[in-house]
Amino acid sequence: MATMITHPIIPLVLGCSLGLRVISVRLLSVACVASILPDFDIIAFQFDIPYASDYGHRGFTHSITFAVMVGMVGILFHRALRCNRWIGFSLLFIATVSHGILDALTNGGLGIAFYWPLDSTRYFFPWQPLEVSPIGIRRFLSGRGFEVVRSEFLWVWLPLFTLGLLMYAMRRRFQRSSPSSTGT
Ligand SMILES: [Zn+2]
Fold first, then answer.
1. Which of 42, 115, 130, 182 is deepest in the core (most CB within 10 A)?
2. How far is the CA of 16 from the centre of ligand 1 (A)?
3. 5 C-alpha to center of ligand 1: Å?
4. Distance 38 CA to ligand 1 centre (A)
5. Quick one: CA torsion of 60, 8, 97, 42, rounded to 10 degrees?
């Protein structure tokens, strides 16, 4: 997996780009949780479910189908999340599906069951620049952690923060030049 601090960057950058008028704080908070939700499947190890099983780590919770199911929460609870139902669906879907996409860019473990339940094959992308994060805090802190964070900073944080800043600047500029923002 990529680290738990890297996955929420995707919804945060989208929130920063589109603004709180479109994406409420509540929706953004739930989307950050959705972005790490797939990794709750590591509980499978406690129940001796094999890694390669559909119900093992990087199995069904990392699939596109699971992301659609999480997206449905955005439709069902759009009022509580204070958003348009399709914005709710889209952000929760993107936050969840992006988790598997980032994991498929890592260089270790098994691939991602993107197409569960139609296909149990585990997939990686051909380009895997991200160091895979060890499972468990102790192993993470035991030396490999620095390499993991370095690769995620270089290939995820830096480009996405740059993109987010650009989108934020463009949105501010658009709002300033929009006639409605001047009250005329
Ligand atoms: Zn994962």
1. 130
2. 24
3. 12
4. 6
5. -10
